[in-house]
Amino acid sequence: MGTLTTGGLEGVVAGRTAICTAEAAGDTLFYRGFDVADLAAQASYEEVAYLLLYGELPNAAQLSDFRTRLAGQRELPPDLKTLLERLPAAAHPMDVLRTGVSVLGCLEPESEDVTALAERLLARLPAMLLYWHQFHTRGQRIDLGSPAADLTGHFLHLLHSRAAEEIYRRALEVSLILYAEHEFNASTFAARVITSTRADFYSAIAGAIGALRGPLHGGANEAAMALIASFGGADEAEHGILERLARKELIMGFGHRVYKRRDPRSPIIKQWARRLGEEARDTQHYAIAERIEAVMRREKRLFPNLDFYSALVYRACGIPASLFTPIFVIARSAGWAAHIIEQRQDNRLIRPLAEYVGPAARAYVPLAERP
Ligand code: ACO
Question: Is 133 annotated in the active site?
Fold first, then answer.
């Protein structure tokens, strides 16, 4: 008989991985041994995705081939496009991505190398999201190609129908790097559980998207933007947050299961939020966000997680709030795929025990004899 764990499996080591380590002791995050701060300062998203999928940083020729392969696989199957057109305009984009991935699993059941599948999915997720979005908001069947050689530039080109300015492109790319991987978080663990049954790649990704959708996980970035935008100024935000805390409400974008003093990703994305705010001459939202951060630190000793200031970066990039969590999907798909590959390499069905707290064994009572 196993021992009872704390709620939410807090503090439980549930498996081994060579992909990533998020360390509570030092509040640090490493992807395959590289500090995420160094990657966010110097690497491209494609380098990071390659590192996660293949285990090493690419050399120049490998990176160039990788980019070319991704850029060459952006088109969607016609049946998927038809389905995206039929999904409701009011659907949440996370439901659209979950459904789109599931449909891909029907149209192209897994029959090839999983790394090749992962690359194709990575290339297609921005196309899937923005084909649906532009069809339902602009009534246009957009061309899924773009001159942008990189995934971030491609995303922004499909969204705005023009090339992105470099400062906005790089800010979004940094957020993708920071979101790309995070050890045994809820969605990744969901993907590994599904993979452990020997289910297919698409089922694991669809399950991971479902897990990411909730506001305690990826959905927090959309909720954080709604919170920041609900205040007209920093003083109003201070009052509003104090009222919410008095009502014992959760403030989205704060706290973390693993990190206890700071989320190492947050200062990086915060810098970009400030830069973009200055660039766009919108410092009001940043001032509101900083005040919320100060109140949360003072009142609850809580710190912003990656989701909080990412929301401001996305807003400055002209991205609608409903697409914030889907961007997390696009970024994290590299991490999910790496974990699916790793789980398959040394698989054993994930099936823990439960401590039973229900009634003791009792005799069945026939229907006619029940009071
Ligand atoms: N706002 C207000 N209070 C909070 C918050 C918050 N965001 N986060 C934690 N607390 C409080 C809890 O109410 C609890 O207080 P109590 O001891 O008085 O009951 C205490 O801090 C400990 O919190 P737990 O719920 O035990 O923390 P847990 O590890 O279970 O949850 C989680 C972590 C889910 C991230 C939590 O902090 C939360 O709900 N945050 C808001 C949602 C969010 O931002 N999610 C994004 C996560 S990061 C990511 O996906 C990139």
Answer: no
